[in-house]
Amino acid sequence: xxxxxxxxxxxxxxxxxxxxxxxxxxxxxxxxxxxxxxxxxxxxxxxxxxxxxxxxxxxxxxxxxxxxxxxxxxxxxxxxxx
Length: 82
Known about the structure:
Blueprint: H1 2-9, H2 12-15, H3 24-36, H4 41-48, H5 52-58, H6 67-79
Helix pairs in contact: 4-5
């Protein structure tokens, strides 16, 4: 059922990738997105029912398509020191 839903919901290139290959991946993506949005790790861990160590170990990936956002934030930060 999940694989059929992926084929309907995702563009063909994403459906052919490992993106959201399991329902759990949505949870993982949500927590990683919160972290990438700058939400304090303690708050994210509390909402997820995890410890901060688990959060930073297991949910520290950059969700697909967010690398550009992260790169811009880093560039903006570095420009402040010029």
